[in-house]
């Protein structure tokens, strides 16, 4: 990441006089073609801010010219203003009060970044009590060049200088430099994907047209990337704020303003035309294929990878679903087990069942173990292909500046030599050992308490059913499972908030370390919370009918709860509570439409979605041999999940910021761990088969011999899984060659740049 340092002038020079944003105005009626109207259309031709057309050519509420005054809020030039005033439209505007004029975009310092049209990308919502001088100062900081300690972005004050919003965009040079810093790959003139280099930008396709060169999600994330990198170059007093809000040297400006209540929210703006087209191609029609490239372009690679995996995993459920239906249909025992899971009482002794039925379960168990490995290996290949296509395959690990929430004593980083907050590693380890681990252990203990409560309730309703033997008592047999599922979901929600607080307390420097530790905490709890009861029933109680009934309850109730909480409730809240307050028409001012987007709730992220898929994968790979219809139920659920998740992210939440990613990250490792754990559980469940135990006893095998045989089979199956993983490469051969080519060209470019700097 770049180091935004400067000796002089620094941020202190950005304290501006109170009149700054009122020195120049852009007239209503849009004499420049860069007004709010048409803000999503076309590309960015290199036309200077002095280029203007007749005032009658483009009606708009606000005209947003890049040419600005010295104070960063300026709009049109005086000459153009005088020309407009001579026209009938200009005379009319003079009669219309101050609502008919507005300051324009902050001025760009680079001539190559001048453009006729500016694309609003991000909205900053300010606090209600923010004073105009604070807003003007903030716009100056945002628009100042990197060498002056600014973000080198474009800022527009909205309808007037005293409003509570700032609209942000990014000039060409800022976008291109950030593209190189993020390590994104783009299409070279040869047609291959290459790691982007700013010095070689003219040889990359569409590098002069940002809307074609970068996706909307990338452009919006770069704005956030620049804002998060703002740091005070020296102690600085913020105009309009008390002295207690003074910025210290190297303080994160954006975080400080957020804690001071100056910045209430920052979010990317929706593109209505693109969103409408994406919705029609994604969930509104009857198509089965997902427009993954469009999803990546609009929502970013993290969202695209999630939906790609959801799509891949859903269609991968077809083979186990067909096998499960076959086992259920052709196996007499399986049919009895389905009846048992519904009735809660044994239909017929399992020992009396015939052999072929047990063989069906054995086939299901072995298939599940091998299926989980093949699916994950094939997904790795698909993931690498998508990563190359989306330009994230070669994301570089950078010595990044600390994440915005990181705090510590100011000092010199021994690695980078930058002045930044420093926090000793040993203090973080102490916090993790003395606070995080005990708290996580406490919640795991609450999981055990819930499990004991489930067993107690199970015993009570079984006794009640024995005494009453009625339809009501039969229905009550599922009450302990339902109540325990609700308890587990509530506990998981509370734990997620606690885990986030613990992660903040641990004070991780890098964003990647923060996300990794948060994911690890949640994964440990989720695995224990979702599978502890099933493992206890299988390994300790050794009660297969109870395990089957519990798994059926989890599959049905959990999916219903997820659909209601994730889609139905947000839809009802949006339809009857939020939507009436953000009604808009075609004639509404653009700033009002932007504000309407702020009334939507923030997107909660993909954490819960991945957890749901991970739990599904665990049910299928670990325990499907006792309930063959597991894959069928999951397939039905996921076919609706794809559309409901797509609808949810498009309509019910704000557009999220999404950093470029090269894969699913740590989630892929979690799926692979479950894949190997499936060998142990399936071998143990097969050992519990009465038919197999009777067969071993007839062969003269003792219990110890049976256990040793199960361990041997387990090791053989693990060996088969390892062999499959080795035989199926993680990436196609052509992708491997592309990666090597990218690394080679990047090394060559670095060598040439070093030689050039030595000569100069």
Automatic annotation (TrEMBL):
The chain crosses the membrane at residues 432-456, 476-498, 518-540, 617-640, 661-687, 707-728. Keywords: Membrane, Transmembrane, Transmembrane helix. Residues 295-740 form the Anoctamin transmembrane domain. One of its GO terms (molecular function) is chloride channel activity. Residues 83-94 have a biased composition (Basic and acidic residues). It is a multi-pass membrane protein. It comes from the Eukaryota. This is Anoctamin. It comes from Champsocephalus esox (pike icefish).
């Amino acid at each position: 990441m770049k180091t935004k340092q400067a000796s002089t002038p620094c941020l202190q020079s950005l304290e501006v006089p109170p009149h700054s944003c009122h020195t120049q105005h852009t007239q209503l009626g849009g004499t420049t073609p860069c007004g709010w109207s048409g803000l999503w259309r076309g590309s960015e031709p290199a036309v200077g801010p002095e280029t203007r057309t007749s005032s009658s050519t483009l009606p708009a509420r606000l005209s947003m010219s890049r040419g600005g005054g010295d104070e960063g809020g300026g709009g049109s030039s005086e000459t153009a203003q005088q020309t407009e005033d001579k026209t009938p439209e200009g005379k009319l505007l003079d009669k219309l009060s101050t609502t008919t004029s507005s300051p324009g975009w902050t001025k760009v310092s680079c001539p190559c970044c001048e453009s006729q049209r500016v694309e609003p990308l991000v909205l900053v919502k300010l606090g209600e009590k923010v004073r105009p001088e604070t807003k003007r100062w903030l716009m100056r900081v945002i628009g100042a060049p990197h060498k002056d300690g600014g973000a080198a972005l474009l800022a527009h004050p909205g309808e007037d200088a005293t409003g509570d919003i700032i609209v942000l965009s990014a000039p060409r040079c800022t976008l291109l430099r950030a593209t190189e810093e993020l390590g994104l790959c783009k299409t070279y003139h040869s047609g291959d994907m290459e790691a982007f280099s700013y010095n070689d930008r003219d040889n990359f396709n569409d590098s002069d047209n940002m809307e074609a060169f970068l996706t909307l999600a990338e452009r919006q994330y770069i704005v956030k990337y620049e804002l998060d990198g703002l740091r005070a170059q020296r102690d600085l007093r913020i105009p309009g704020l008390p002295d207690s809000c003074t910025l210290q040297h190297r303080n994160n400006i954006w975080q400080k303003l957020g804690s001071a209540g100056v910045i209430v929210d920052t979010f990317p703006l929706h593109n209505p035309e693109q969103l409408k087209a994406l919705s029609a191609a994604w969930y509104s029609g009857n198509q089965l294929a997902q427009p993954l490239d469009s999803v990546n372009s609009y929502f970013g690679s993290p969202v695209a990878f999630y939906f790609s995996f959801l799509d891949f995993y859903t269609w991968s459920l077809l083979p186990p679903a067909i096998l499960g239906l076959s086992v259920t249909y052709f196996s007499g025992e399986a049919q009895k087990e389905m009846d048992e899971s519904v009735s809660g009482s044994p239909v017929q002794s399992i020992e009396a069942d015939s052999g072929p039925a047990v063989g069906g379960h054995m086939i299901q168990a072995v298939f599940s173990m091998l299926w989980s490995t093949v699916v994950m290996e094939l997904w790795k290949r698909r993931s690498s292909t998508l990563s190359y296509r989306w330009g994230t395959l070669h994301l570089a690990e950078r010595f990044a500046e600390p994440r915005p929430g990181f705090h510590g004593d100011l000092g010199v980083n021994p690695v980078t030599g930058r002045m930044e907050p420093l926090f000793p590693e040993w203090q973080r380890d102490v916090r993790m050992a003395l606070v995080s681990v005990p708290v996580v252990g406490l919640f795991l203990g609450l999981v055990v308490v819930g499990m004991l409560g489930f067993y107690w309730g199970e015993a009570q309703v079984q006794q009640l059913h024995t005494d009453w033997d009625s339809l009501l008592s039969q229905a009550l047999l599922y009450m302990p499972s339902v109540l325990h599922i609700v308890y587990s979901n509530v506990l998981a929600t509370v734990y997620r908030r606690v885990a986030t607080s613990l992660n903040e307390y641990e004070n991780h420097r890098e964003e990647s370390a923060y996300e990794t530790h948060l994911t690890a905490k949640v994964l440990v709890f989720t695995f224990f919370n979702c599978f502890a009861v099933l493992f206890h029933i299988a390994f300790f109680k050794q009660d297969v009918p109870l395990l089957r009934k519990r798994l059926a309850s989890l599959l049905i109730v959990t999916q219903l709860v997820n659909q209601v909480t994730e889609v139905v409730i947000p839809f009802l809240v949006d339809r009857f509570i939020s939507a009436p307050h953000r009604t808009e028409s075609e004639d509404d001012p653009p700033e009002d439409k932007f504000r309407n987007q702020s009334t939507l709730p923030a997107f909660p992220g993909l954490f819960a979605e991945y957890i749901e898929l991970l739990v599904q994968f665990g049910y299928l790979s670990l325990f499907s041999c006792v309930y063959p219809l597991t894959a069928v139920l999951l397939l039905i659920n996921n076919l609706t999940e794809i559309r409901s998740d797509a609808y949810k992210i498009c309509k019910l939440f704000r557009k999220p910021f999404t950093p470029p990613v090269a894969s699913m990250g740590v989630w892929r490792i979690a799926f692979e761990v479950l894949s190997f754990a499936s060998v142990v559980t399936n071998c143990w469940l097969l050992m519990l088969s009465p038919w197999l135990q009777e067969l071993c006893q007839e062969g003269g095998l003792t219990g110890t011999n049976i256990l040793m045989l199960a361990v041997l089979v387990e090791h053989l199956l693990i060996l088969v899984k390892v062999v499959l993983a080795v035989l199926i490469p993680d990436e196609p051969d052509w992708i491997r060659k592309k990666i090597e080519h990218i690394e080679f060209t990047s090394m060559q470019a670095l060598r040439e740049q070093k030689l050039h700097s030595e000569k100069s």
